[in-house]
From TrEMBL, chain A:
The lineage of its organism: Eukaryota, Viridiplantae, Streptophyta, Embryophyta, Tracheophyta. Belongs to the GST superfamily. It comes from the Eukaryota. GO terms for cellular component: cytoplasm. GO terms for molecular function: glutathione transferase activity. Residues 88-211 form the GST C-terminal domain. Residues 2-81 form the GST N-terminal domain. The keyword Transferase applies. It catalyses: RX + glutathione = an S-substituted glutathione + a halide anion + H(+). This is glutathione transferase. GO terms for biological process: glutathione metabolic process. Keywords: Transferase. Pfam families: GST_C, GST_N. Its EC number is 2.5.1.18.
UniProtKB/TrEMBL annotation, chain B:
Gene3D superfamilies: 1.20.1050.10, Glutaredoxin. GO terms for molecular function: glutathione transferase activity. It comes from Juglans regia (English walnut). Signal peptide: none annotated. This is Glutathione S-transferase.
């Protein structure tokens, strides 16, 4: 029986953060795939508050919320390199701040741009571009947000590396253009290709099909 | 880094903000002297805009010239820097995960639902109040599990989740008064009722949480200014 189990879906980017952390640190784990339209009794038992993935089960104890799980992995497997967070408290605070910034200021706006059309989509893109400038500055002189190696903030932002191009293909709109955000695009490519990360991406064609269908459903529901 | 002059540590904040309260309690626990720079309601100082250009919000901790924002991140920073003082987070990684989970729950679910009580009316209000109480019942269960019979979520001493949730008690009481509702009560959340008393009486907390009346008056001013009773910090 595996000591570490991860509840995930095939497509959700949040459990992928945990896959990356476990892979990068070389921790053995078992994946349990959930169908969110038919949640297992185990998932409901282990995450009764949110009933969502990811859930990490370690020696039978469950942990939920992806950023909380990342901190747990870092603290539990302290001796397993690479470290996801720096030693210095100020640098750690900056990495945590970066992750929170992504959750608050980038992710919801990219999602908004994806599920909307016309003026609303434009407004979401303008807003997210304003926020992305901070990322572009942060990436100056660095391969990854964590420095030479992938770190906490990279794992938090990693979803950008594959989902943005999926969203661009489905909507036919450029979300991140290479003139304004050259460093961000380079980072996305570096992350996409990083060792231990590059083999974890869900199949692109399946993602396009899924998100195309999801967008159509959501747009159809919009009040006219 | 056990000692610092008070000019070395500054907190940009405002007395009503529960997020600012978190930072002040954490610094008190570590016996760190700091300069409190109060922001004026309705305007943002140059220092705030400079030190938190991303969110432009309080609290900001400025330590040795470096700025840190986001209250829960600041509290963890304080715990890590002043590590010779009493610990704020648990030492065990699993216990830390549990307290981080519930602290995020307070920010993502509980406090937002509490704030909605002020503007809601009739059936909608009743539904929101019920939702807030359900959340408090979840926290009651979490309290029973993590306190293990002691006074606080952190055990014998105030810890991370005590700070995250306890900082909200001033507004919780104000919302109860303004809304004519009871959120914490002996029947559904007996442990938390007791905990709230212990928390507010603690040396690190005394004098930091504003009186209910002051907050009610402040809420009225906010409504006049913005048309909304509570801003988010």
């Amino acid at each position: 029986m595996a000591e570490v189990k991860l509840f995930r879906t095939w497509s959700s980017p949040f459990p992928l953060r945990i896959v990356w952390a476990l892979e990068v640190k070389g921790i053995e784990y078992e994946m349990i795939y959930e169908d969110l339209s038919n949640k297992s009794s185990m998932l409901l038992q282990y995450n009764p508050v949110y009933k969502k993935v990811p859930v990490l089960l370690h020696k039978g104890k469950p942990i939920s919320e992806s950023l909380v799980i990342l901190e747990y992995i870092e603290e539990t497997w302290k001796s397993k390199t690479p470290s996801l967070l720096p030693e210095d408290p100020y640098q750690r605070a900056m990495a945590r701040f970066g992750a929170k910034f992504g959750e608050d200021k980038i992710l919801p706006l990219i999602w908004e741009a994806f599920i909307k059309q016309g003026k609303e989509q434009e407004e979401a893109l303008v807003a997210v571009h304003g926020n992305m400038k901070y990322l572009e500055v942060e990436l100056r002189g660095k391969k990854f947000l964590g420095g030479d190696a992938v770190g906490f903030a990279d794992l938090a932002f990693g979803w950008l590396a594959n989902l943005v191009s999926v969203f661009e293909e489905v909507t036919g709109v450029t979300f991140i253009d290479c003139e304004k955000f050259p460093l961000l695009l380079t980072w996305m490519q570096n992350f996409m290709d990083a060792p231990k990360i590059r083999d974890t991406w869900p199949p692109r064609d399946k993602l396009i099909t899924k998100f195309r269908a999801l967008r159509e459903t959501l747009i159809a529901k919009e009040p006219k | 880094m056990a000692n610092s002059s008070s000019t070395d540590v500054k907190v940009l904040g405002a007395w009503p903000s529960p997020f600012v309260i978190r930072v002040r309690i954490a610094l008190n626990i570590k016996s760190v002297k700091y300069e409190f720079l109060e922001e004026t309601l309705g305007s943002k100082s140059q220092l705030l805009l400079q030190s938190n250009p991303v969110y432009k919000k309080i609290p900001v901790l400025i330590h040795g010239g470096k700025s840190i924002s986001e209250s829960l991140i600041i509290v963890q920073y304080i715990d890590e820097v002043w590590n010779s003082g009493p610990s704020i987070l648990h030492s065990d990684p699993y216990d830390r995960a549990i307290e981080r989970f519930w602290a995020a729950y307070v920010d993502d679910k509980l406090f937002p639902s509490m704030k909605l009580i002020n503007t809601a009316q009739g059936e909608e209000k009743a539904a929101i109040v019920e939702q807030a109480i359900e959340g408090l019942v979840l926290l009651e269960e979490a309290f029973q599990k993590s306190s293990k019979g002691k006074a606080f979520f952190g055990g014998d001493r105030i810890g991370f989740l005590d700070i995250a949730f306890g900082s909200m008690l001033g507004w919780l009481r104000a919302i109860e008064k303004m809304g004519g509702v009871k959120l914490l009560d002996e029947a559904k959340t007996p442990g938390l009722v007791q905990w709230a008393e212990c928390f507010c009486a603690d040396g690190a907390v005394k004098g930091i949480i504003p009186d209910t009346e002051k907050l009610v008056e402040f809420a009225k001013i906010l409504v006049k200014m913005k048309g909304a009773p509570l801003g988010k910090n």
